[in-house]
Every structure is written in structure tokens, then in C-alpha cells.
Description:
Layout: H1 3-17, E1 24-29, E2 37-42, E3 47-52, H2 54-61, H3 65-80, H4 93-118
Parallel strand pairs: 1-3
Antiparallel strand pairs: 2-3
The structure holds zinc ion (ZN).
Amino acid sequence: MKLIDFLNKHSKEMLFVFCLSHFEVTFKRRKNLDCLAEIDTDLEYLSATIFYGNRLEKLYRSGAYEEVLKTLAHEITHILLENLSETPGSNSKSHKVACEQATEHVSRLLYRLYIVEKGQ
Length: 120
Ligand SMILES: [Zn+2]
């Protein structure tokens, strides 16, 4: 299975499990991305684009599917916490770090739920 097909399949299932089925997520490959993935969320139009690059591609090809899924869970969790990142003072470094930590923590909880729901 190609990475894009893997991402599309699991993102639809995660959106359902995370109670975010009203959102549409699309994927775009981006060269020179220095992280595994990043997300651009549009709360008004209930859509999001997840950008991924070589690092995620390499991870997938190495067979590290769990890491790829955890990355996907993290990005999708950003949809849930998007409002948090746009509160006053959201441009400060400490606020961004706090949002990122909250996103990571919630995504780990949701990933665990996802695994249980999938019966894996
Ligand atoms: Zn993040």
C-alpha cells in the first residue's frame, strides 16, 4: 500500500473514532518539510490539509507503521485543539509549547482509543 493510501484509510477511521467525521482531511506532499507532518485547519469550512514530507515517507517505508499512525493521530488532534492555539497571547513561545504538549498528550489518549476500537 502506498503511504497516501495508508494515510487516507486511517485518517477516515481516526476522524470517526475521534468524533470528527464532520471534518474532511486531505493530504499534500511537501518537499523540504523539516518535521514529519503539519496541519492547516479551517474551522469555518470544517476541513484540514495535512502536509507530509520525506521523513514520514522514510518512516513508512521502514515499516514503522505505529509511528506513522501516532503522527497522524497527533495531526488530527490539532483539529480538536485548534481553538486553544488561537486564544489571546497565542503568539508567545510558551503558549505554543503548551499547546503542542496538550496536543501530544490528547493524541496519545485518542491513539489508544483508536487501537482499542480497531481491536488491535
Ligand atoms: Zn503538533
